[in-house]
Amino acid sequence: MKRLLNDGYDAVEELLDGYVKAHGDVVKLADNERVVVRTTLSPQPKVGIIFGGGSGHEPLFLGYVGEGVADAAVIGNVNTSPDPIACYDAVTAVDQGKGCLYLYGNYQGDVLNFDMGAEMAADDGITVETVLITDDVYSAKDRADRRGVAGDVIVLMAACAVANTGADLATVKAAAEKANDNTYSMGVALSSSTLPVTGKPIFDIGPDDMEVGMGIHGEPGIERKKLEPADAVMDEILGIVLPDMNLQSGERVAVMINGLGGLPLMDQYICYRRVHDVLTEKGVTIAKSMVGNYATSMDMIGMGVTLVRLDDELEAWLNAPFDAPYLKQG
Amino acid sequence: MKRLLNDGYDAVEELLDGYVKAHGDVVKLADNERVVVRTTLSPQPKVGIIFGGGSGHEPLFLGYVGEGVADAAVIGNVNTSPDPIACYDAVTAVDQGKGCLYLYGNYQGDVLNFDMGAEMAADDGITVETVLITDDVYSAKDRADRRGVAGDVIVLMAACAVANTGADLATVKAAAEKANDNTYSMGVALSSSTLPVTGKPIFDIGPDDMEVGMGIHGEPGIERKKLEPADAVMDEILGIVLPDMNLQSGERVAVMINGLGGLPLMDQYICYRRVHDVLTEKGVTIAKSMVGNYATSMDMIGMGVTLVRLDDELEAWLNAPFDAPYLKQG
């Protein structure tokens, strides 16, 4: 598919330059130009929340830097981990003496580089803890091995809500872990994204085909099959996610429909409708709904369903006030 | 391109059903199911703001119904005017005794049907005024003949900011007219949108081609040409828009980069960057920036630039507090 870029090798730098020019009242680049930070940190010292990963998922991660949300985003090349120095520089840019929490999706390259950043910060006497986000149900049987997808945003919200109370690092980390443990996602892709450097798709897919369970970078899913109506696709996703989370009648959930970039809002709301109706029929209460492009794969046509099992505490965290360009509420 | 729908004939009804289920705390359907209204109207009576047009431009129009924003959205079929009864029913649903203002893009079918709605309301003794939005620079030489595109959102913001003060209908209408008179847009399309009923594009365009000046429904533009780098496309657009608005050094503007649905945020910020740099170089101050999918054509790959010439009054209107699902600020 077509993109509107200059030299693809410059795309990430130009994105970041454009982003801080558009939102200069909220964010700026740190001395390290792959680190987006709030223009002014919280007046009350708090645990620094550092969010990050490869670019190509906008508005993830940089769109969630703002008041009461992430303090910094560390940005890698497209579908590529940020480098360790950037991970470290984000810590020195936002630490207020209470330590920092790294939040990112569970991908090998990210783990290696963020861990190195945390070690470098430790040499400076700054404590950095990590919560890996692991919400992609289909990517592995065990929670700890799963990849992170749109659940990144859910876990971020929980961590930030608690960090904003002035809580200590262990408490903030525990909140993020609780949110992650209760978040389940699964998606479907109808097309590949188009890479800026090559101008080509990452993979080929037939004109009538879809892939159920595909990852946000194009990682293989369950099966390649003929494209079905939206309701059938939602039923297939829920048929896997609901048993995995063992959701029972009487429970409460948050529902996120996450567009991967190229899927119209019309389609996303039609998908939401089916998820709403199936859950309601099952006796599950939807206490919060989020629909839109929260974590994309650039122009990929596709979407994911994210369900969050709620208790009063987690529900309150997800309803906290946030004010970043791509996350405003309360 | 691929969509994720059920029967295409049901797409608009399913969209509306999904939308009010997802955002039931903010909106509901009126007795007329093509009218989306606020769940509770303003406690202080105000001029009713009614926004509308064909569907397929989401989040336009329904995404802007909310507290301090539109009181109702009237929704037609895809790329088709809402019917006159719906236009009328929106008035009876939201009028608080101060009259209503219709705001919509200048398209013949919309004008006919909204005018009929206003006549029916007049028979009930309710005054309805209209401001046609006419921001698409390339669509006609004279302002009054131009089509409305993303400027719809700018004009809505101005009208709502003034309506929220409790101003009378004439004052609110004058504010909308002032915003419209100062708003200039032009776009480029790299692909057609895909119609839900047919599953087919509206028009064909070559794999390396773009159309400069294309309308939001696929109306023909200036010329079909080879796709160029983002900066060159922005320069071409600004080369037409800036002389048309006769923008001078020392002036202040708001800039909106509006994605048409299929263009990644990465590309939109790269486009924003060039517009920012060209205006800054010219001595123009950007006092407000908006980047994202404000008025789409479903999955169309493309974007538009909207510039708003500001004075203190108009700038204050655009910075007023708004709280709709797709317009939150302040």
UniProtKB/TrEMBL annotation, chains A, B:
The keyword Transferase applies. It holds the Pfam family Dak1. GO terms for biological process: glycerol catabolic process. It is an enzyme of class 2 (transferase). GO terms for cellular component: cytosol. Homodimer. The dihydroxyacetone kinase complex is composed of a homodimer of DhaM, a homodimer of DhaK and the subunit DhaL. The keyword Phosphoprotein does not apply. This is phosphoenolpyruvate--glycerone phosphotransferase. Gene3D superfamilies: Dihydroxyacetone kinase, domain 1, Dihydroxyacetone kinase, domain 2. PANTHER family: TRIOKINASE/FMN CYCLASE, TRIOKINASE_FMN CYCLASE. It catalyses: dihydroxyacetone + phosphoenolpyruvate = dihydroxyacetone phosphate + pyruvate. Residues 7-327 form the DhaK domain. Its EC number is 2.7.1.121. InterPro entries: DhaK_dom, Dihydroxyacetone_Kinase. Pathway: Polyol metabolism; glycerol degradation. SUPFAM superfamilies: DAK1/DegV-like. It comes from Micropruina glycogenica. The lineage of its organism: Bacteria, Bacillati, Actinomycetota, Actinomycetes, Propionibacteriales. Keywords: Glycerol metabolism, Kinase, Transferase. GO terms for molecular function: glycerone kinase activity; phosphoenolpyruvate-glycerone phosphotransferase activity.
